[in-house]
């Protein structure tokens, strides 16, 4: 989460005070990411130092009476950030992937049981998130988007577990395949 | 008492070397007003489970009890009446009759059961209105979108005094938003007192259920435990780490 760019986005709509920015940030993110005041003012100071925002009173400490507005450089930075995908080329070191790979080598442990324990846990989490959706009347759009994002994230992990489960079951029935070719391995290593 | 009960149900197709055991020792109880999802990969036996629960197929051994009545003690005629009056089915491919309008598809189960056509159609219209489909009532299935067809199929499944709703991958090939709308309708039926079983391989759909049961190779291997309240989930969310 880039608080820095979220604040720039809020300032792109017009000058605002620090406390106002905090309140609008929390509203925009469906109140799921609380933000403390200190964090807001520290970020604002850095943005001012980098000349991405300006205040009416340049010398004074950031505080409740100081309004900030975005500069042209700030607008450029915001636009660049919005249209630049984050770096997702490096596969994350996912704890669950590592656990399943590790379980394969532990004698007496069923990798399918390991997968099922995690599958159930993830679905229970998804049930909790889905329950939040049930009461549409108390729902706001930002919150719905955040809940969807979390559900899709958890769902993708469940689907990986399902695929891993099926792949391992099929592999157990087949002749052991040859180890991955050096080219594929080199490619994976090169990415690290 | 549970509304639907499967007791030690097994189902085999064929015998000997070519025989397949689709279900083995499956026990499942579903209360009224509750939604149970059965989750498992293709070929795990979940559709067979649903067909047996709805008396579309007979188990090889074991018993199915609906509202206290064992299916094994019912005549074919009683079972046909049960399927007409008590059980609503929703299938992945909707199974709407192409030659009937949405309204006629929905009112059909009531008319088959002897309800006068005018009254049946009146009930169907009211139900379609509830599902936001009143304006499309006179359209034929091929004139409806996928989401509309599925809404009509659900209306048909819950019309009348049906108290057991069985759905097989009810969101079919629908997108996430329409899939969610389908689950909301199923859940709304449950909150009115219907007992529902949804089989799916989709975790997002299953997560609408009060309880999720996992089936693998014809056996129930696990189930979820009732979740804590939604409020505790939001309260427990960590604050974001400050970015520098």
Helix fraction of chain B by DSSP (H/I, runs of at least 4):
25-40%
Broad structural category of chain B: alpha/beta
CATH topology tier name of the largest domain in chain B: Rossmann fold
Which superfamily, in CATH terms, is the homologous superfamily of the largest domain in chain B?
Answer: P-loop containing nucleotide triphosphate hydrolases
Topology (SSEs and partners):
The complex is a heterodimer of chains A (192) and B (244).
Chain A: H1 3-11, E1 16-17, H2 18-28, H3 37-49, E2 53-55, E3 67-70, H4 72-82, H5 95-104, H6 111-134, H7 141-173, H8 182-191
Antiparallel strand pairs in A: 1-3, 2-3
Helix pairs in contact in A: 2-3, 5-6, 6-7
Chain B: E1 4-13, E2 20-30, E3 35-39, H1 46-53, E4 61-66, E5 69-70, H2 76-85, E6 87-90, H3 102-112, H4 117-130, H5 146-158, E7 164-168, H6 176-191, E8 195-200, H7 203-206, E9 211-216, E10 219-223, H8 230-235
Parallel strand pairs in B: 3-8, 3-9, 6-7, 7-8
Antiparallel strand pairs in B: 1-2, 1-4, 4-5, 9-10
Helix pairs in contact in B: 3-4, 3-5, 5-6
Describe, in short, the structure shown.
The complex is a heterodimer of chains A (192) and B (244). With 192 residues, chain A is mainly alpha-helical. Chain A folds into two domains: 3-82, Winged helix-like DNA-binding domain superfamily/Winged helix DNA-binding domain (Arc Repressor Mutant, subunit A); 95-191, no CATH class.
Q: Can you give a write-up of this model?
A:
The complex is a heterodimer of chains A (192) and B (244). Chain A has 192 residues and is mainly alpha-helical. Chain A has 2 domains: 3-82, Arc Repressor Mutant, subunit A; 95-191, no CATH class. Chain A contains 8 helices and 3 strands. Chain A has helices at residues 3-11, 18-28, 37-49, 72-82, 95-104, 111-134, 141-173, 182-191, and strands at residues 16-17, 53-55, 67-70. A 3-stranded antiparallel sheet of chain A has the order 1-3-2. In chain A, helix 2 packs across helix 3 (37-49), helix 5 packs antiparallel against helix 6 and helix 6 (111-134) runs antiparallel to helix 7. The longest helix of chain A is centred in the C-terminal third of the chain and has 33 residues, at 141-173. Chain B has 2 domains: 4-86 and 161-227, 3-Layer(aba) Sandwich (Rossmann fold); 98-152, no CATH class. Helix content of chain B is 34%, strand content 25%. Chain B is built from 8 helices and 10 strands. Chain B has helices at residues 46-53, 76-85, 102-112, 117-130, 146-158, 176-191, 203-206, 230-235; strands at 4-13, 20-30, 35-39, 61-66, 69-70, 87-90, 164-168, 195-200, 211-216, 219-223. A 6-stranded mixed sheet of chain B has the order 6-7-8-3-9-10, sandwiched between helices. In chain B, strands 2-1-4-5 form a 4-stranded antiparallel sheet, covered by helices on one side. The termini of chain B are far apart. The model of chain B is unreliable at 238-244 (pLDDT under 50).
């Amino acid at each position: 989460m880039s608080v820095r760019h979220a604040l720039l986005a809020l300032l792109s709509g017009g000058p605002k005070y620090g406390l106002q920015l905090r309140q609008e940030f929390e509203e925009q993110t469906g109140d799921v990411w609380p933000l403390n005041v200190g964090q807001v003012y520290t970020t604002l100071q850095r943005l001012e130092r980098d000349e991405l925002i300006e205040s009416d009173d340049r010398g004074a400490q950031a505080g409740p009476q100081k309004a900030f507005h975005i500069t042209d450089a700030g607008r450029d930075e915001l636009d660049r950030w919005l249209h630049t995908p984050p770096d997702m080329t490096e596969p994350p070191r996912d704890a669950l992937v590592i656990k399943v790979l590790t379980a394969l080598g532990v004698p007496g442990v069923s990798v399918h049981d390991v997968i099922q324990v995690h599958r159930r846990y993830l679905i229970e989490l998804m049930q909790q998130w889905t329950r939040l959706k049930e009461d549409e009347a108390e729902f706001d759009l930002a919150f719905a988007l955040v809940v969807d994002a979390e559900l899709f994230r958890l769902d993708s992990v469940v689907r990986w577990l399902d695929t891993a489960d099926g792949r391992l079951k099929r592999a157990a029935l087949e002749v052991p395949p040859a180890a991955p070719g050096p080219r594929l391995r080199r490619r994976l290593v090169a990415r690290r | 008492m549970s509304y639907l009960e499967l007791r030690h149900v097994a189902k085999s197709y064929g015998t000997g070397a070519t025989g397949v055991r689709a279900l083995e020792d499956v026990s499942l109880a579903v209360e009224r007003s509750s939604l149970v999802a059965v989750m498992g990969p293709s070929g795990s036996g979940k559709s067979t489970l649903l067909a047996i629960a709805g008396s579309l197929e007979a188990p090889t051994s074991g018993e199915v009890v609906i509202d206290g009545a064992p299916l094994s003690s019912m005549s074919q005629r009683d079972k046909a009446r049960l399927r007409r009056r008590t059980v609503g089915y929703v299938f992945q491919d909707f199974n709407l009759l192409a030659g009937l309008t949405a309204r006629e598809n929905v009112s059909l189960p009531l008319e088959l059961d002897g309800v006068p056509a005018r009254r049946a159609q009146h009930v169907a219209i009211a139900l379609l209105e509830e599902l936001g489909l009143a304006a499309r009532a006179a359209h034929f299935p091929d004139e409806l979108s996928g989401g509309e067809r599925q809404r009509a199929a659900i209306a048909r499944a819950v019309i009348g005094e049906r108290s057991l709703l069985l759905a097989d991958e009810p969101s079919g090939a629908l997108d996430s938003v329409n899939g969610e709308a389908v689950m909301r309708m199923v859940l709304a039926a449950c909150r009115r007192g219907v007992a529902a079983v949804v089989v799916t391989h989709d975790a997002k759909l299953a997560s609408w259920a009060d309880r999720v049961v996992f089936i693998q190779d014809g056996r129930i291997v696990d189930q979820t435990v009732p979740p804590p309240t939604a409020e505790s989930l939001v309260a427990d969310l960590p604050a974001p780490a400050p970015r520098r």
